Amino acid sequence: MNVSTGGRRLRSRGATAALVCAIVLSPGPGYAAPGDPDPNTGQSIEDIRDQLDGLYREAEVATEAYNAANEKATEQEKRLTTLRKDLTRAEKRVKDLHALAGAAARTQYRGGDLAATGIQLLLGDHPESALDEASQARQAMRGLVNVSETQKTARQELSEQTEAATKELRKLKSSRADKAAAKQKIEKKIATAERIEAGLEEEQTRRLAQLEKERAKEADARWTESGGSSGGSAGKGRGKAQGPGGGTQVSGAAGKAVDFAMAQIGKPYVWGAVGPSSYDCSGLTSAAWAAAGHPIPRTSQAQWGGLTRVSLSSARPGDLIIYYNDATHVGMYIGGGQIVHAPRPGRSITTAPAASMPVLGVVRPGV
Fold first, then answer.
1. How far apart are CA 335 and CA 362, in angstroms?
2. pLDDT tens per residue, range 224-272
3. Nearest-angstrom CA–CA distance, 135 and 221
4. Three-class SS of the chain
5. Cβ-count burial of 30 within 10 angstroms (0-12 exposed, 13-18 middle, 19+ buried)?
6. Which residues are catalytic?
7. Which backbone phi and psi does 340 adopt, to 5 degrees?
8. How many Å is the maximal CA-CA distance in the chain?
9. How far apart are CA 63 and CA 47, in angstroms?
10. C-alpha–C-alpha distance, residues 129 and 135, integer Å
11. How far is residue 201's CA from residue 23's CA, in Å, rounded to a whole number?
12. How far apart (Å, rounded) are the C-alpha atoms in residues 136 and 116?
């Protein structure tokens, strides 16, 4: 959509969001049907909605790529730290063995004996035994012949650890590059969508709000038609967590996860965030299940790939519904055909129909 910049200032995203909420919650004057084309641009409100949805979808795909790269980089940094510590120890051992070999050579040249203490401290499994030099002298002297072989082994270990650290550093740099590229794409898509939303006329904003309400009603109907669970009566009367649509209650870890997620309603979506003041979609679900004592993978794709899958018809509160073929969005089922989720930039954590997006499948943490 072409956004005019002459004669009016772009409204901020916050102002637009507030306007949408005000329109949804309060009655307003009549307006054209959503399908009518905009008189200024020729685009229908569905076209505008689809354009915005597409931009935010691309931003979400990039967000999952960012999250995955961030997780990978974090693990690689830990691994690299460990390798560097191992490398430091290996370097010290090679240095000490080199000094020991020199001492042995000098002692042999002088025709004397090398005290057992130094050798046992370096080569022995129990350095404290070196205190008994008298009883260990002969054994230590015999150990001298192993110094060269020990040096060779230590140098080999040093070489291997150096190579491993170098490889891990290359991987880390690659992950950071992936993360930076994903961040750039996210910010670009969000900025484009925000410009479109900020440039909407008041009438267009009203029509978009109406369209979203109609789509929500359609999604509720689709959930029932698709055989989706209403939540049944699992755990009824035994827990606190309750889905707004079906009155379903659930106890245990799932109940704690649902309670946590519901308590975050109203907090903003921020890509890459895992709380406590903001979340993205998988940041919310991973934080909720961590609060319930069952940590799960960070990203929606890893949640889909790593958790137990269940049928759509058996979904119960606490389960995670994964959306889109690439598993790039996730919400937590709360019963009654509803989810709680972090929708997208510019929106806050909220409840929504479980069928408001294309469902890929359902996974159940904690089993």
1. 13
2. 666 666 654 333 333 344 433 344 567 799 999 999 999 999 999 999 9
3. 87
4. CCCCCCCCCCCCHHHHHHHHHHHHHCCCCCCCCCCCECCCCCCEHHHHHHHHHHHHHHHHHHHHHHHHHHHHHHHHHHHHHHHHHHHHHHHHHHHHHHHHHHHHHHHHHHCCCCCHHHHHHHHCCCHHHHHCHHHHHHHHHHHHHHHHHHHHHHHHHHHHHHHHHHHHHHHHHHHHHHHHHHHHHHHHHHHHHHHHHHCCCHHHHHHHHHHHHHHHHHHHHHHHHCCCCCCCCCCCCCCCEECCCCCCEECHHHHHHHHHHHHCCCCEECCCCECCCCECHHHHHHHHHHHCCCCCCCCHHHHHHHCEEECHHHCCCCCEEEECCCCCEEEEEEECCEEEECCCCCCECEEEECCCCCEEEEEECCC
5. exposed
6. 281, 329, 341
7. -115, 135
8. 109
9. 24
10. 10
11. 13
12. 6
Residue positions counted in the chain: 367
Tens of pLDDT, residue by residue over 269-328, are: 999 999 999 999 999 999 999 999 999 999 999 999 999 999 998 999 999 999 999 999
Whether 275 contacts 263, CB under 8 Å: no
CA 254-353-282 angle, to 5 degrees, is 50
Cα–Cα distance measured from residue 213 to residue 207, given in angstroms and rounded to the nearest whole number: 10
Question: CB burial class (10 A; 0-12, 13-18, 19+) of residue 133?
Answer: middle
